[in-house]
Design brief:
This protein has 253 residues and is mostly beta strands. The protein is 13% helix and 35% strand. It has helices at 2-16, 29-32, 48-58, 234-237, and strands spanning 39-40, 62-63, 72-78, 88-93, 99-103, 117-120, 132-135, 142-151, 154-157, 167-172, 179-183, 189-196, 202-213, 218-230. The strands form 2 sheets. Strands 6, 7, 8, 9, 10, 11, 12, 13 and 14 form a 9-stranded antiparallel sheet that branches. The chain has a 5-stranded mixed sheet with strand order 1-5-4-3-2. The radius of gyration is 18 Å and the shape is globular.
């Protein structure tokens, strides 16, 4: 189907996007950039420090995560054989400073034998830097993601209004009820869901666009748009089904 083909192509594209990164701690970039070999972890997994350090040592991703204009290192690490929540981690090594890591939401750990992966680094709100979007690999028919931000001296999950556990569907959910997530050039977040009509000819679509603001990135004040479109016009009318982070991302140095 045209929709499924477009989404699959997008998944490859998004996986290659590297962009600037996330927010500053309350006292400013200087605190996050202190010369230190310390690793600030979630504290829940005894092997987290070693697993994340190895992943960061292999990672080619260099982006500004602390907001000080210097490229930091970002990585996603997985231990498929480990118990939840210690099966997957996201890590950031700040240039000239500390390393920060945390695990994914326990109920969104990768399925057995799969590894979590980095799929986007969108810039949200009006502050420097970008957030880190991770494909949890916890769903068979969808790219189920979590978004993380570096704030207050640790990596934190960005809470999204569309779920209770901090996860959201970037793409997938089936050809009958497809979902999509994206961002705007203004740094707002977009969550869209559609339902195919009984005759299979149209989609009823609801798009919610949330303003992103605050030091720890909070999504609020949604603008809601509803439409009914022919099945073969979904990508044209709602481009978030084929392009997720391009509008608010920039290439790394």
């Amino acid at each position: 189907m045209q929709l499924r083909t477009g989404l699959a192509a997008c998944a490859v594209t998004v996986g290659l996007v590297v962009l600037p990164a996330c927010g500053q701690a309350p006292s400013g970039p200087a605190d996050l950039s202190r010369a230190s070999s310390d690793v600030v972890t979630s504290g829940d997994c005894p092997n987290e420090r070693a697993v994340v350090r190895r992943a960061l040592g292999r990672s080619p991703v260099r982006v500004d995560v602390s907001g000080d204009g210097r490229p930091d290192t970002v990585a996603v690490a997985s231990r498929p054989e480990a118990a939840k929540p210690c099966r997957a981690f996201v890590g950031v090594r700040v240039s000239g400073g500390r390393t920060y890591s945390t695990h994914l939401f326990p109920l969104a750990a990768p399925l057995e034998g799969l590894r979590a992966r980095l799929v986007g680094l969108p810039e949200l709100g009006d502050r420097p830097g970008a957030e880190v979007v991770v494909d949890t690999r916890a769903a068979a028919d969808a790219l189920l993601a979590q978004m993380f931000t570096l704030a207050g001296g640790r990596l934190r999950v960005v809470r999204v209004p569309v779920s209770d556990d901090g996860t959201f569907i970037v793409e997938g959910g089936g050809v009958i009820y497809p979902h999509a997530a994206a961002c705007t050039a203004e740094g707002d977040m977009v969550f869209t869901e559609a339902a195919q009509t009984r005759d299979g000819k149209r989609f009823r679509v609801v798009r919610r666009t949330y303003e992103a603001g605050g030091h720890r990135i909070r999504l609020a004040d949604p603008t809601v748009e509803r439409a009914t479109v022919p099945v073969d016009r979904l990508l044209d009318r709602f481009p978030e089904y084929g392009m997720h982070w391009k509008a608010c991302s920039a290439s790394a140095r």
